[in-house]
Q: What sequence folds into this?
């Protein structure tokens, strides 16, 4: 708000002080911890104590050990699947919302977003009880005659993780898709209609391409949240549902190998940053061309 | 929008209903169960009862965790609203390093919580800070800061400059303008941000698990109890928490939405 250039030295000193203060909190509590964390990934552990000597050993182990890369890859595939399923469910729902008028539209949007703010842990627990061998899903499937007896298909395995993450993360897909659909100028749709396009043609040629930025950011949101989660796989994954998040978490608990855990986190961070950048890039390119 | 063919409307509505059912099923199961007793692993559907709620009132472990959660929530709200507002004001008024600052603020929100949590865990160890409620509050504040900051900044940017200019024209000092014009205009965004911050802090589990000491917050306590399975009174707690969360959502919407719509129209 102050005019630059004509400031007095005292005022400039104050301005510098304010700048330093503004940066202090985020730098001390965000940047410094992350930097130390990155540094840790180059340390090693010897008989339960951390050796503060730089080495690439953790990274070499990550790439050469036959355990970690496959789990890493499987987790990525899992989270991509979660993102795809979330979008397949969220897109029609978001589209339906935009066909509604006025107050209904936002009331229903609210209704679909509220579950986001409700206890994560409790939802996982409830879903586990729904998916369990004696859970509601199995009971319903047996009662409907689809299954002869309760199935173990979604009990404590990768499928359970996939279903649970999908249920938890759908709202994160709905919001960006809804926002991008809502931003499409109605004039374009009317013009398309006037020029004789069918409803399907208008959707495929106008609505769908223009909503892709929303789909891209929805996909990257869901993917990032899914891959960073270790509570869900820990709760519903059982022994066979082993994800990268669980391995990471175990390095800080039972395995007590913080430097290796930090290196695994760096691998996770790389994937997350890539996903965010891709989502952003697609979103922005399409967004500016409108 | 042109009238949709009937069939596709039905299809879309069906999927929307399916999504709603999927989203709400994990919320309704514990609520419904909370009114019935469970014996030998199966629910007794014949007689609804409030006994789980009575049992909850006597579960001191859970009540202590609830108290801890509330303390952490209030501290987080105060810290994040004060610093979030100051940072938004800084971003709004100065040029140097703004985008870098904003990037750093958003980092913990973009990064998976497990990374933020572990980074803080190692940081606290390196600076010799024992894991306690203080470290939990710091973790929560760092996590929710971006939300509060963004909420306040958006209001600040939508605020008309003429108000500030008018205030200066009428002879007000910088402080007077801040207290009488800027702050009152920001207040509803700050309250809305505070409610969101509280809601996020109330539910934060992943960072908390990593940085907490001996006292655990409600989600962490629930997480620990889950390995053994819940006692029925947890269902009662779930029902109460859900009601409380709906209340928070409605409140947040009240403070954040109507004013923005109003300013857009004028």
A:
């Amino acid at each position: 708000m102050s005019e630059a250039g004509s400031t007095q030295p005292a005022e400039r000193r104050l301005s510098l002080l304010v700048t330093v203060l503004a940066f202090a909190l985020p730098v001390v509590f965000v940047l410094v911890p992350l930097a130390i964390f990155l540094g840790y990934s180059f340390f090693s552990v010897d008989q339960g104590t951390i050796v503060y000597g730089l080495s690439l050993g953790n990274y070499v182990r990550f790439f050469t050990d036959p355990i970690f890369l496959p789990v890493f890859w499987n987790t990525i595939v899992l989270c991509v699947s979660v993102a795809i399923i979330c979008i397949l469910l969220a897109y029609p729902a978001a589209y339906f919302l935009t066909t509604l008028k006025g107050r209904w539209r936002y009331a229903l949007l609210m209704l679909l977003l509220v579950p986001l703010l409700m206890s994560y842990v409790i939802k996982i627990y409830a879903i586990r009880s729904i998916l369990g061998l004696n859970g509601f899903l199995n009971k319903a499937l047996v009662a409907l005659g689809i299954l002869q007896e309760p199935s173990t298909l979604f009990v404590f395995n990768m499928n359970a993780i996939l279903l649970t993450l999908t249920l938890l993360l759908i709202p994160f897909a709905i919001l960006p898709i809804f926002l991008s659909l809502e931003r499409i100028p109605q004039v374009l749709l009317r013009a398309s209609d006037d020029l004789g396009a069918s409803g399907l043609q208008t959707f495929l040629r106008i609505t769908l391409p223009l909503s892709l930025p929303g789909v891209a950011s929805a996909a990257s949101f869901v993917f990032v949240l899914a891959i960073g989660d270790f509570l869900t796989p820990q709760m519903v994954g059982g022994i066979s549902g082993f994800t990268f998040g669980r391995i990471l978490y175990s390095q800080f608990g039972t395995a007590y190998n913080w430097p290796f855990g930090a290196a695994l986190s760096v691998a996770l961070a790389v994937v997350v940053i890539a996903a965010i950048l891709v989502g952003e890039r697609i979103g922005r390119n399409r967004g500016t061309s409108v | 929008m042109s009238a949709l063919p009937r069939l596709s409307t039905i299809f879309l509505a069906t999927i929307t209903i399916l999504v709603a059912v999927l989203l709400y099923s994990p919320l309704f199961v514990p609520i419904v169960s909370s009114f019935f007793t469970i014996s030998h692993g199966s629910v007794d559907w014949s007689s609804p009862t409030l006994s789980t709620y009575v049992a909850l009132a006597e579960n001191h472990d859970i009540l202590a965790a609830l108290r801890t959660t509330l303390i952490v929530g209030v501290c987080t709200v105060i810290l994040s609203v004060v610093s979030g507002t100051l940072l938004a004001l800084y971003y709004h008024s100065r040029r140097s390093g703004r985008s870098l600052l904003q990037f750093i603020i958003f980092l913990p929100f973009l990064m998976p919580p497990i990374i933020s949590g572990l980074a803080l865990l190692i940081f606290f160890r390196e600076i010799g800070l024992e894991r306690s409620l203080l470290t939990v509050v710091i973790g929560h504040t760092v996590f929710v800061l971006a939300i509060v900051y963004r909420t306040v900044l958006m209001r600040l940017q939508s605020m008309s400059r003429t108000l500030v200019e008018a205030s200066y024209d009428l002879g007000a000092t910088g402080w007077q303008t801040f207290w009488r014009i800027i702050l009152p205009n920001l207040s509803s965004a700050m309250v809305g941000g505070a409610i969101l911050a509280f809601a996020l802090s109330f539910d934060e589990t992943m960072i908390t698990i990593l940085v907490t000491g001996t006292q655990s917050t409600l989600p962490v306590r629930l997480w620990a109890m889950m390995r053994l399975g819940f006692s029925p009174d947890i269902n009662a707690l779930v029902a109460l928490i859900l009601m409380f969360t709906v209340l928070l959502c409605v409140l947040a919407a009240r403070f954040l939405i109507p004013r923005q719509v109003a300013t857009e129209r004028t």
Remarks:
- Chain B touches chain A through 75 residues (CB under 8 Å).
- Confidence is low (pLDDT under 50) at residues 259-266 of chain B.
- The CA atoms of residues 87 and 149 of chain B lie 7 Å apart.
- Strands of chain B lie at 37-39, 42-44.
